[in-house]
Amino acid sequence: MAKIEHVFFDLDHTLWDFEKNSDLAFQKVFEKQNITIDLDKFLEVYKPLNLEFWRLYREEKITKSELRYSRLKNTFDAIDFEISDEVIDMIAIEYIDFLPHFNHLFDGTFEILDYLKDKYNLHIITNGFEEIQAKKMESSKILDYFDVIVTSESVGVKKPNPRVFEFALEKANANANNSIMIGDSIEADIYGAINSGIKAIHCNFEKEAIENSDFESITALHELKQYL
């Protein structure tokens, strides 16, 4: 890793604790909307559906508005909770409004960013929605660590499309040989980077079994010190 000058991070599920912050945002929305439903039951169904709809969104098979509506509609249908489309649309809007105001980060985020900031140029590449990613980083007080922030919406395609990584390299005045990508998604972050000629480290915080991997993995952010 001696040649590395630029470190690109994913945001959600890598530095910013999306699951914890998302749960809190839904709790606030349901309280505001007086939705009498067991939140844990809702989230148990919602989370795998959300991942599936994000996959479709990443593959350009659904639009952003379809993602935001369908993941909620399908969840409510699955748990037999009757709710109008009007309220679903309101939940979708308020969820996005509330989400960036919760600021939980993964353990070791500030420690590793402080460790890296004087040695490398730090950047963000995220598939998250354009209108809230900077707000998330500002709320959690990590925005100033990063020189370049690239969202998929600003490029017009999503990770793992090589155009996202090419755009980020150009904007950061970097090249593939002196850069590394760190993220949680094997498909979007790791192979997206590797297929663009960029080294990558997988954040496997759930310690899931990975067979025949051809990339490095960490289970906590402080482990990055072994490589950088």
TrEMBL record:
It comes from the Bacteria. Coiled coil: none annotated. InterPro entries: HAD-like_sf (IPR036412), HAD-SF_hydro_IA (IPR006439), HAD-SF_hydro_IA_YjjG/PynA (IPR011951), HAD_2 (IPR041492), HAD_sf (IPR023214), PGP-like_dom2 (IPR023198), Pyrimidine_5'-ntase_YjjG (IPR052550). GO terms for molecular function: 5'-nucleotidase activity. Keywords: Hydrolase. This is Haloacid dehalogenase-like hydrolase. It comes from Polaribacter dokdonensis DSW-5. The lineage of its organism: Bacteria, Pseudomonadati, Bacteroidota, Flavobacteriia, Flavobacteriales.
